[in-house]
Amino acid sequence: MPELHDFAAIRTALADLPGPDTAAGRDAAARNGQLTKPPGALGRLEELAQWYAGWRGDPRPEIAAPQVLVFAGNHGVAAQGVSAFPAEVTIQMVANFRAGGAAINQLARLAGARMDVHELELDRPTADFTRGPAMTEAEACLAFATGWTAVAPDADLVVAGEMGIANTTSAAAIATAILGGENWAGRGTGVDDVGLARKEAAIAAGLAANPGRTGLEVLAALGGREIAAMAGAVAGARAHRIPVILDGFIGSAAALTLWAESPATLDHCLAGHLSAEGAHDRMLAAMGKTPLLSLGLRLGEGSGAALAIQVLKGALACHSGMATFAEAGVSDG
Ligand SMILES: Cc1cc2ncn([C@H]3O[C@H](COP(=O)(O)O)[C@@H](O)[C@H]3O)c2cc1C
Ligand SMILES: O=C(O)c1cccnc1
Predict the structure, then answer these.
(1) pTM for the full model?
(2) Residue 254's pLDDT is what?
(3) pLDDT one-digit tens code per residue, 198-236
(4) Alpha-carbon dihedral of residues 266, 268, 272, 274, nearest 10 degrees?
(5) What is the pLDDT of residue 160?
(6) HEC string of 54-69?
(7) d(CA 68, CA 248)
(8) Is residue 333 pLDDT above 90, yes or no?
(9) Is 38 a member of any domain?
(10) Is residue 170 assigned to a domain?
(11) What percent of the chain is modeled with pLDDT above 70?
C-alpha cells in the first residue's frame, strides 16, 4: 500500500494508478465480433463487457467475487437541521447493516457480493463546515486510507456505499465547490421546503468558510469521513485493477473529488444508477458518466450500484458464455 498520509502523497498514489490492459480489451473486442448475434444487438452490454475485460486483463472474464463496502460517518453540519432524520440514525443503521436488515444487505446478497461495513469514528462527528473545514488534512487522509485498504485485493468488482445523516448536504456542497453554479441541494431523506432552505444556507456558508478548490481540499473541507473513505476505496480498487460501480448522489460526490484531481482517475468506474436526488444527473454529466439504471432510488448505502452489478454480470455472462458463429455452426451473414 502506498503512503497516503497527506494530500501530496495521495496525489502521487493517484498518478501511479494502473490503466487497463489494452491487449485484453482488443481480444475481447475480437471475441465480441464473433458471437452468435447480429453486430451490436446486445447494445451497451457489449461495450461494458469489453471495458471490464480490459480492466481485468482477461478477454473472457466473469464476475465471481464482487465486494460491497459500506462506510459510515457522522457530520457536524447535521446540527444545522439539514436532514429529516436525527444523527443517531447513522449508528442505528450500522447495527441494522450488521444484523442484515437494511436494503443493501438484500441487494448485496442477491448479487452474490460480500459486504463489509466500516464505521469511521461515529462518536466523533466531523466539524460543522459552515464555520470552517469539516476535517483536517490528516483526518481526511486517514479516512481515505481506510477506504483504500478496505478493498479486498481478490475482489473482481467493488461497490462503495455510505451511511451518514446529513451527507446529502455535504455532497451538494462538494458539487457546488467543484462544479460551481447553483441548486445542487435536493431533499435527501425528505426535508420540507424550510429544511431545503436550511440546506442551501448551510452550503452557502460552507463555501464562504472554506476557500480551497482542489478535489482533495474540497473533500476535507466539505466532506465527511465516509465520503473520504469512498474516494479512497474507488482509488484503492484501481490499484488492483478492480472496476468500480458508483452509487448515487453521495458516492458520485466522493468520486467527483477524484475527478477534480484528474478526470482519468475514474476511467475504471461506471455510474450504477441515476438517483432521484435532482442534481445527480448534472454531476454524472460533468464526469461523463451515463448511469446503467434509472429507478427513482434515493437511498444510498450502495443500493443502486449493488443492483447494477446484475447488469454487468449479464454483460459478462453473454460475452464469456456465448458460442461463436464457428462453434455453433451458425452462418455469420
Ligand atoms: C433509515 C435511513 C436509512 C438510510 N440509508 C441510507 N440513508 C441515506 O440518507 C442519508 C442522507 O440523507 P440526508 O442528507 O437527508 O440525511 C444518508 O445516510 C444516506 O445513506 C438513509 C437514511 C435513513 C433515515
Ligand atoms: O442518491 C443517493 O445516494 C441518496 C439520495 C438521498 C438520500 N440518500 C442517498
Answers:
(1) 0.99
(2) 99
(3) 999 999 999 999 998 899 999 999 999 999 999 999 999
(4) 30
(5) 98
(6) HHHCCCCCCCCCEEEE
(7) 14
(8) no
(9) no
(10) yes
(11) 100
CA of 304 to the centre of ligand 2 (A): 10
Q: What's the grid cell of residue 210? A: 472554506
The number of domains in the chain is 1
Residue 67: phi, psi to the nearest 5?
A: -125, 125
Q: Ligand 1 atom 9: the closest Cα is on which residue?
A: 189
Please tell me the distance from the alpha carbon of residue 246 to that of residue 146, in angstroms, as a whole number.
18
Q: How many whole angstroms separate alpha carbon 119 and alpha carbon 100?
A: 16
Listed in order, strand segments (DSSP E) in the chain are: 66-72, 114-119, 157-163, 244-246, 269-271
Assess whether the C-beta atom of 299 lies below 6 angstroms from ligand 2: yes
**What is the model's pLDDT at position 88?**
98
Contact 163, 93 (CB under 8 A): yes
Give domain status of residue 231, yes or no.
yes
Number of continuous H segments (helices) and E segments (strands) in the chain: 14, 5
Cα separation values, 192 from 130, 156, 206, 279, Å: 21, 41, 21, 17
In terms of residue numbers, what domain contains 153? 64-311
Residue nearest to atom 7 of ligand 1 (CA): 299
Rounded average pLDDT over 238-250: 98
pLDDT, position 213: 86
Give residue 250's pLDDT. Answer: 99
Cα 269 versus chain centre, distance: 8
**CATH number for position 80:** 3.40.50.10210
C-alpha–C-alpha distance, residues 249 and 201, integer Å:
19
Inside any domain, residue 183? yes
Query: Is 301 in the active site?
Result: yes
pLDDT digits (tens, 9 = 90+) for 107-147: 999 999 999 999 999 999 999 999 999 999 999 999 999 99
Hey, which residues does 160 pair with through a beta bridge?
A: 69
d(Cα 10, Cα 80) in Å, to the nearest integer?
31
Ligand nearest to the CA of 277: 2
Q: Give the ipTM of the model, two decimals please.
A: 0.99
Q: Amino acid letter at 284? A: L
Q: Which of 3, 121, 301, 327 is catalytic?
A: 301
> Kind and range of the H or E element at 108?
helix 103-110
- Residue 249 sits at φ, ψ, to 5 deg, of -60, -40
